[in-house]
Design goal:
This protein is about 75% helix and about 0% strand. The protein is mainly α. Helix 1 crosses helix 2. It is elongated, with a radius of gyration of 16 Å. The termini are far apart.
Length: about 70
């Protein structure tokens, strides 16, 4: 039988996840803005490299990145 995590543990996990998500979003948005200012080519791979996040993390924000290409 699986052990059910307590509410305290679930809340702590959710809080940690929110922090990582906010950090990744901020890094990606900052990288996009810098790349636009510098006139660099914008695609998922270049944004991930510039932001210092994984390709898969950047891919989650594909719509935002593709909007930044225009």
């Amino acid at each position: 039988m699986a052990k059910v995590p307590s509410d305290k543990k679930r809340n702590a996990t959710a809080k940690a996840t929110d922090g990582r998500v906010k950090s990744a979003k901020l890094k990606i948005f900052n990288a996009l803005n810098m790349m636009r200012l510098e006139g660099k080519k914008i695609n998922i791979n270049s944004v991930a490299r510039e932001a210092g996040v994984s390709y898969n993390t950047a891919k989650k924000y594909r719509a935002v990145i593709e909007a930044g290409q225009k």
